[in-house]
């Protein structure tokens, strides 16, 4: 099933790309629509969508230039969302009915030698021994294991599944602790990470608060920029970006800047300006995204040069400028010579000029730079 889903989706994506390049009423539009309809007819589950990640990649087709492809892709995405919601609600209903049956079995199997007293609605259950010494030993062991330990989600599931095979006293303790122990609930919340901040954390310093607000505003744009990016590898991490807290990251970055660089109007004012300019630059989405995701730590950010903080597009442009400048540099070199020994790969003519320059170490051969007189094509070789 997973292989069929992936093959059908790849066919739809390929057809959509060809249709976008061709424009107009291309037959590739019909091929893409047929593939999307086949995807909708396939029986899928939440596990299939998670393993194949087709749902994330389908967002690309919802922004296609053809309105028919947009409508069909949006409808398919909405259909898959309803499938996930339906499965989630069914699993919750089944889980609730199993828990009710478990509690009924526990009450019916409760032994006569133990009396259960509720100390509070949110607290654990305490046991008062009435009869035998064996019951006393069992209650002590149960208190040490159940009442003083934090029960994780997986352990609670195992306890509920095996509750019918164990004694009634142990089952009662497990159920009560999972429902009423505030410490276990706090542990579950903390495992999911810190909560998102809704308001800025102030430090009673107007200048520092202003820097934090500017950083939070810049990081808040990353989510929409990631969804609108043209690169597939960037759009595929949109869920990771949405899970990040821009306000918390802004506070961390500003705190490290203040600790390492001092105040923004001090001796490191130019460094502050360089960092803030690159983080707020509308064309430098890559740096903002990497800082928000934690790929670039605040400690590394404050020591990066402007060239290192530049976007991927700017870095590529700078490299091309350097290569072109090196290629056209003729300082201290001999004059150009005309020859017919080199054939131009663009126009096929042999009318060329060349010169040589030592671009590497002294024991390495010189680099020859060749220019075609006919089409002005440049190339080099060693």
Architecture overview:
Residues 90-100 have a biased composition (Low complexity). It comes from Musa acuminata subsp. malaccensis. With 382 residues, the protein is α+β, with helices and mostly antiparallel strands. 60% of the residues lie in helices and 8% in strands. The chain has 19 helices and 6 strands. The strands form 2 sheets. The protein has a 4-stranded antiparallel sheet, with no helix packed on it. The protein has a two-stranded antiparallel ribbon with strand order 1-2. A hairpin with a 5-residue loop joins strand 5 (367-372) and strand 6 (378-381). Helix 6 (133-147) runs parallel beside helix 8 (168-180). The longest helix has 42 residues, at 67-108. It is flat.
Short description:
The chain has 382 residues and is an alpha+beta fold.
SSE blueprint:
Blueprint: H1 2-22, H2 27-41, H3 46-52, H4 54-58, H5 67-108, E1 114-118, E2 125-129, H6 133-147, H7 153-161, H8 168-180, H9 182-191, H10 206-220, H11 222-228, H12 232-235, H13 238-243, H14 246-261, H15 269-280, H16 285-293, H17 298-301, H18 306-309, H19 312-328, E3 337-339, E4 352-357, E5 367-372, E6 378-381
Antiparallel strand pairs: 1-2, 3-4, 4-5, 5-6
Helix pairs in contact: 1-2, 2-5, 6-8, 10-14
């Amino acid at each position: 099933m997973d292989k069929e889903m992936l093959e059908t989706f790849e066919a739809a994506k390929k057809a959509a790309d060809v249709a976008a390049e061709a424009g107009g009423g291309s037959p590739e539009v019909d091929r893409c629509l047929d593939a999307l309809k086949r995807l909708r007819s396939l029986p899928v589950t939440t596990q299939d969508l998670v393993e194949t990640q087709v749902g994330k990649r389908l967002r690309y087709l919802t922004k296609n230039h053809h309105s028919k492809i947009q409508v069909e892709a949006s409808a398919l995405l909405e259909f898959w969302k309803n499938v996930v919601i339906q499965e989630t609600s069914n699993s919750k209903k089944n889980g609730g009915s199993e828990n009710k049956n478990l509690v009924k079995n526990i009450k019916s199997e409760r032994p006569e030698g133990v009396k259960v007293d509720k100390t509070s609605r949110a607290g654990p259950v305490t046991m008062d021994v009435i009869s035998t010494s064996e019951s006393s030993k069992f209650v002590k062991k149960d208190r040490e294991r159940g009442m003083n330990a934090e029960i994780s989600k997986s352990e609670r599931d195992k306890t509920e599944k095996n509750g019918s095979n164990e004694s009634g006293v142990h089952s009662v303790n497990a159920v009560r602790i999972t429902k009423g122990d505030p410490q276990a609930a706090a542990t579950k919340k903390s495992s999911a990470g810190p909560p998102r901040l809704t308001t800025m954390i102030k430090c009673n310093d107007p200048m520092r608060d202003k820097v934090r607000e500017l950083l939070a505003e810049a990081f808040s744009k990353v989510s929409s920029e990631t969804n609108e990016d043209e690169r597939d590898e960037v759009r595929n991490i949109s869920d990771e970006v949405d899970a990040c807290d821009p306000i918390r990251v802004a506070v961390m970055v500003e705190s490290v800047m203040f600790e390492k660089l001092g105040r923004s109007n001090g001796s490191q004012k130019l460094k502050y300006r360089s960092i803030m300019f690159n983080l707020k630059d509308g064309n430098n989405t890559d740096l903002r995204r990497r800082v928000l995701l934690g790929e670039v730590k605040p400690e590394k950010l404050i020591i990066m040069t402007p060239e290192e903080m530049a976007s991927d597009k700017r870095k590529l442009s700078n490299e091309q400028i350097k290569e072109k400048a090196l290629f056209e540099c003729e300082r201290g070199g001999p004059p150009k010579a005309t020859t017919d020994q080199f054939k131009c790969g663009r126009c096929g003519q042999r009318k060329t000029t060349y010169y040589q320059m030592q671009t590497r170490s002294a024991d390495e051969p010189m680099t020859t730079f060749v220019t075609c007189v006919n089409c002005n094509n440049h190339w080099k070789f060693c």
